[in-house]
Design a protein that fits this description.
The complex is a heterotrimer.
Chain A lengths: L22 H29 L10 H7 L3 H29 L3 H28 L20
Helix pairs in contact in A: 1-3, 3-4
Chain B lengths: L17 E9 L9 E9 L5 H11 L19 E4 L2 E4 L14 E4 L6 E3 L2 E2 L2 H9 L18 H6 L17 H6 L5 H11 L7 H8 L13 H5 L6 H14 L3
Parallel strand pairs in B: 1-5
Antiparallel strand pairs in B: 1-2, 3-4, 3-5, 6-7
Helix pairs in contact in B: 2-5, 5-6, 5-8
Chain C lengths: L5 H4 L3 E3 L2 E11 L3 H13 L2 E5 L15 E2 L10 H11 L6 H21 L13 E9 L4 E7 L5 H16 L2 E4 L1 E11 L2 E11 L5 E11 L20 H8 L4 E2 L4 E8 L9 H4 L3 E3 L7 H4 L9 H13 L11 E4 L5 H7 L1 H11 L8 E10 L3 E2 L5 E3 L5 E7 L4 E2 L11 H23 L11 H11 L7 H15 L3 E2 L1 H18 L13 H25 L8 E2 L7 H4 L1 E7 L8 H4 E7 L13
Helix pairs in contact in C: 2-5, 2-12, 3-4, 4-12, 6-16, 14-15, 14-16, 15-16
The chains are: A mainly alpha, B alpha+beta, C alpha/beta.
């Protein structure tokens, strides 16, 4: 009998390791690559939203976002930002779960939940960026921002 | 004639002695269900090491205190243990360098199965080591020595210093989780051969370490580098192996 | 692939709680000699290596300076000069046929290690670099020669690691933390042969019987009979002690080497390589005193001479420090770059343990008990002898535990790492040859009985004496009376002390009564071996009324070739516990093999 506290490895080492697609290597590379890109993407994002233009941070409102997304350049920019950051974050979370959650069942559950939420957020976010219409047809005029053409 | 007086160098004056309190995490699998802390008081000289304190306890107070030790000067790697929360060799840690106004806490290294008191099962550690093929593989059969320049030799010098004490691996938080990670020591020993100009199996070892439980699990917390009693730049060695995996060659 | 298959380390059967294993070759000890033998044996026969430690903990790893071989990579050299130096270094008590083999096979031994992967330091051309070492000269003593192949000041570490790596490669079966406590000898066709060994498994407290056709002892030395020693805590001479208790002889036990440069007060070794790289020994006046004693090679004189000179300096009042009781090793004139490249570990020892910065300050040093020249007598095939000439078939010994004798009365620096490789290999090769035709000697039914009794008796000991107290008293008495200088008076004093300690040993207490990792129990058993061996050392020293190599009798300060150009052979006879050592130790002599070099005065 050995101590049942955290000191003991929870499972004996497997005799042979299974060889399969190496997500760890690509994951590791992805974190570094996406990290570098995100610095540029986020810096520019923050600059345009908070500092540039008239009024700086006070200029942000629904109309500001609507205006930005009328430009395809910012659509692509924000899509990149969304995908790179969300996957970066999720992969980081996955690492933490792998490092600190020892119960295999809990670990699997958490990883599946993480994957599911990431996929949902990615799809939803992408959908919003590309289907965003500040002045949807058939809405009540009172719900629409002022710059929408009167219907 | 007897040379008693001559044999006592730097005659240890009684005034130099000091008393220290040792808190030792005891565990006897036949009696205890959980480890327990036990307090001892020891008389120490400034040149005494933590190992001397343990010996004093074992030899003068409680013979059942169990720990591994052999060379007592930091080259055999038997007595890696957690001293005041840091992995160190008991024979390389001088009592005077610790804060003895407080108790000195000594416990077994973490992440390997605790067997008794300060002794852990080293087998999982050596199993990892064996898996990286830690031996020279070369097809040439030279009549004399293989030539190697001083620069080529220096490339892997740092990692040849490893004494397999497990201080690094058992200080690694990733290893603590489930013991599945190869651990710093195995990677260090792979590094020693991957970067040896005489070796021909670097690709094999890089492939072994390009594994789910391989180098990518390293989170660069630097615990291993800090723990290494031989001063090996362990985290750097792991980073060099990562870079070599990406390159596909040393 | 490199994983050791479980099947071969599993016992073949278990009877009454005793596990039985069967291997062609059983190697006891996993230091340099044991693993070098295992590399030969494992390739040719079923082999088990049993060690009381993990192999990489063995004390081979503490060796620092180098391994001698006349490669002539950096300057002119040949194995014949090496032979001469070995013979002269050993004060002509070396068996010259063995020394020739040692020097000749040194060259292949070094190259084999390199081929196995050992990272030697290199010359600018990429060859193995070599450096100077004490007693190694060119042209029979003309000048120091660069003969020691080295890897910084961690040559032993590299050898131990390299041998272990190759054992992993070969899938050698290791039984780690198994204490061999008995050798089983069975009479076959009128002669005694080894049938196997009995080992105590530290982690469980269970007994294992290893049956083998051949048994190789590679158990190292017994420096723990002294207090100030470079030896590990685990060097308690168990293997030599087992052989002794079996009634087999021990050779030249009075010759123990004191290494000149141990850290003062601690005994931790500072390699002779320091002096090989130019370090200088100085007394309190800053004088390079070795110039007076050995004008030709000065600080690079053999260890016995330097240790004696150091003791003399201290006696004559030129010791340094407040109590004038140590000397200095000075490397301050070497550049930090050279020190870091060639002597990194020993400078770190000085910093860690004495708080001295070797770049700028001289390091306090004192002679420290280092190496047993004597041990289990073997021939050049590493076969153990039961008298001056008779071989015990199937029993081999190599390394410090053995006495071939290539070291005579004083071993040259770098010849021990050489010894383990040359004679470890020979032991392995000859054992493989032997088991090809030999049968297993039958095991007695009660093979483990003796060890079982010993363990039960010691574990049950509830006396009043502490093991550590007895051991400390033994070590202090040995340091005071049987160290560099000896006289009849001091040797009798320590004999009486040992006698007293042996009586008190019957009244020891062992506090740990458990089965798992009972190191308390084993320290008691180890003390038993230490007492036995210390007694043989002192008794042999008392009888040798001359001064030669590591054995210096102040009452007989001259070498006496007329009477004492012979090996001492000690036999256990009669009751081992009888009061007077003379009642149970019988001494005889064995002629020294002389081929080319007639004894001459030993001057450096």
């Amino acid at each position: 009998m050995t101590s049942s506290t955290i000191e003991a490895p929870r499972s004996p080492r497997p005799v042979a390791r299974k060889r399969r697609v190496n997500w760890e290597k690509w994951g590791w590379l992805y974190m570094r690559g996406s990290g570098v890109l995100l610095i540029v993407l986020i810096a520019a994002h923050l600059f345009t939203n908070l500092i540039a233009g008239q009024g700086g941070v006070k200029a942000i409102d629904f109309a500001f976002v609507g205006g930005k997304w009328s430009n395809p350049f910012w659509k692509v920019w924000d899509t990149l930002l969304l995908w790179l950051a969300l996957i970066h974050g999720s992969n980081g979370m996955r690492t933490i779960v792998n490092d600190y959650v020892s119960n295999p069942k809990v670990r699997k559950t958490m990883l599946i939940a993480l994957l599911a939420s990431s996929v949902v957020l990615l799809l939803l976010g992408t959908l919003v960026i590309y289907t965003f219409d500040p002045c949807p047809a058939g809405s009540l005029p009172s719900d629409l921002p002022s710059f929408c053409p009167a219907q | 004639m007897s040379t008693v007086l001559e044999e006592r160098p730097a005659a240890a004056d009684a005034i130099q002695k000091f008393t220290a309190t040792m808190m030792i995490r005891r565990f006897d699998p036949d009696v205890d269900t959980e480890p327990r802390w036990q307090e001892f008081s020891v008389e120490m000289l400034p040149t005494d090491r933590v190992l001397d304190a343990l010996h004093q306890i074992k030899w003068e107070q409680d013979g059942s205190l169990t720990f591994r030790r052999s060379c007592a000067h930091g080259v055999c790697g038997s007595d890696a243990m957690r001293i005041n929360g840091r992995n160190r060799l008991a024979c390389k840690t001088l009592m005077k360098d610790l804060d003895i106004s407080k108790p000195v806490y000594v416990e077994a290294i973490k992440g390997l199965p605790l067997e008794k008191d300060l002794v852990v099962d080293m087998e999982p550690f050596f199993a990892s080591y064996r898996e990286v093929q830690p031996f020279l593989q070369s097809s040439s059969k030279p009549e004399k020595e293989r030539l190697q320049s001083a620069e080529q030799r220096a490339r892997f010098d740092d990692t040849t210093k490893c004494i397999l004490c497990a201080a690094c691996t058992s200080s690694c938080p990733v290893f603590w989780t489930d013991g599945q990670y190869f651990g710093p020591a195995a990677i260090v020993n792979a590094h020693r051969f991957i970067f040896d100009s005489r070796d021909e199996a670097s690709e094999v070892r890089l492939d072994i370490l390009n594994d789910k439980e391989g180098v990518w699990r390293c989170r660069t917390t630097f615990n291993c580098t800090e723990a290494c009693p031989r001063g090996i730049q362990v985290t750097q060695a792991i980073a060099e192996v990562k870079a070599a995996v990406l390159r596909g060659r040393p | 692939m490199s994983d050791i298959p479980d099947s071969s380390t599993a016992p073949t059967r278990t009877i009454d709680g005793v596990h039985y294993h069967q291997h062609d070759i059983v190697i006891v000890g996993a230091g340099g000699a044991g693993m070098r033998a295992a590399i030969q044996a494992g390739a040719g026969a079923s082999t088990a290596v049993i060690s009381k430690l993990y192999p990489t903990r063995s004390h081979t790893g503490a060796a620092q300076g180098g391994m001698a071989a006349a490669l002539a990579n950096v300057e002119d050299d040949n194995w014949e000069w090496h032979t001469f130096d070995t013979v002269k270094g050993g004060d002509y008590l070396v068996d010259q046929d063995a020394a020739e083999i040692l020097a000749k096979e040194a060259i292949t031994a070094v190259l084999e290690l390199e081929n196995m992967g050992l990272p030697f330091n290199r010359t600018p051309e990429g060859k193995i670099d070599q450096r100077r070492f004490g007693g190694h000269t060119s042209e029979h003593g003309k000048a120091p020669v660069r003969r020691a192949c080295y890897a910084a000041d961690r040559t032993g570490h590299m050898i131990l690691q390299t041998l272990f790596q190759n054992c992993v490669k070969l899938g050698i079966n290791f039984f780690n933390e198994f204490y061999v406590l008995d050798l089983i000898m069975t009479e076959v066709d009128g002669e005694k042969r080894p049938a196997g060994v009995v080992a105590y498994e530290l982690s469980t407290g269970e007994l294992h019987v290893f049956q083998g056709k051949a048994v190789i002892f590679a158990t190292g030395g017994f420096g723990k009979i002294y207090k100030t020693t470079s030896n590990a805590h685990t060097l308690t001479g168990d293997g030599v002690g087992i052989i002794w208790r079996k009634g087999l002889p021990l050779e030249d036990m009075e010759f123990f080497q004191f290494h000149p440069t141990g850290l003062a007060g601690l005994g931790i070794l500072l390699s002779e390589a320091a002096r090989g790289e130019g370090a200088i020994l100085r007394n309190s006046e800053g004088e390079r005193f070795m110039e007076r004693y050995a004008p030709t090679i000065k600080d690079l004189a053999p260890r016995d001479i330097v240790a004696r000179c150091m003791r003399t300096e201290i006696r004559e009042g030129r010791g340094a420090g407040p109590n004038k009781d140590y000397l200095y090793l000075d490397i301050t004139h070497l550049s930090p770059e050279v020190i870091d490249a060639k002597l990194p570990d020993i400078t770190e020892f000085a910093r860690t343990y004495l708080g001295v910065e070797p770049y700028t300050e001289p390091v306090p040093v004192l002679p420290t008990a280092h190496y047993a020249m004597g041990g289990i007598p073997t021939n050049v095939k590493a076969e153990v002898l039961s008298d001056n000439t008779t071989v015990v078939p199937g029993l081999y010994a190599a390394g410090e535990c053995a006495c071939v004798s290539v070291h005579g009365s004083n071993r040259l620096g770098t010849n021990s790492l050489l010894d383990i490789n040359v004679f470890g290999k020979r032991a392995g090769d000859n054992a493989v040859e032997y088991v090809k035709t030999a049968e297993f000697a039958p095991l007695p039914d009660d093979a483990a009985e003796f060890v079982k009794g010993l363990i039960d008796q010691v574990r049950g000991a509830t006396g009043t004496e502490r093991i550590a107290t007895l051991r400390r008293e033994l070590q202090e008495s040995m340091d005071d009376n049987a160290q560099v200088f000896r006289t009849e008076e001091t040797l009798i004093a320590v004999t009486e002390k040992i006698q007293e300690l042996r009586e008190r040993f019957l009244n020891i207490s062992v506090q740990d009564k458990g089965k798992r990792f009972n190191t308390d129990l084993l320290e008691a058993i180890e003390l038993g071996f230490l007492l036995d061996l210390a007694e043989v050392v002192v008794y042999s020293a008392l009888s040798r009324q001359e001064s030669r190599g590591g054995h210096f009798r102040e009452d007989f300060p001259k070498r006496d070739d007329e009477k004492w150009l012979v090996h001492t052979m000690a036999y256990l006879s009669g009751d081992a516990h009888s009061a007077d050592a003379g009642d149970h130790i019988k001494l005889s002599t064995k002629p020294v093999v002389i081929t080319n070099y007639q004894p001459m005065e030993r001057k450096y």
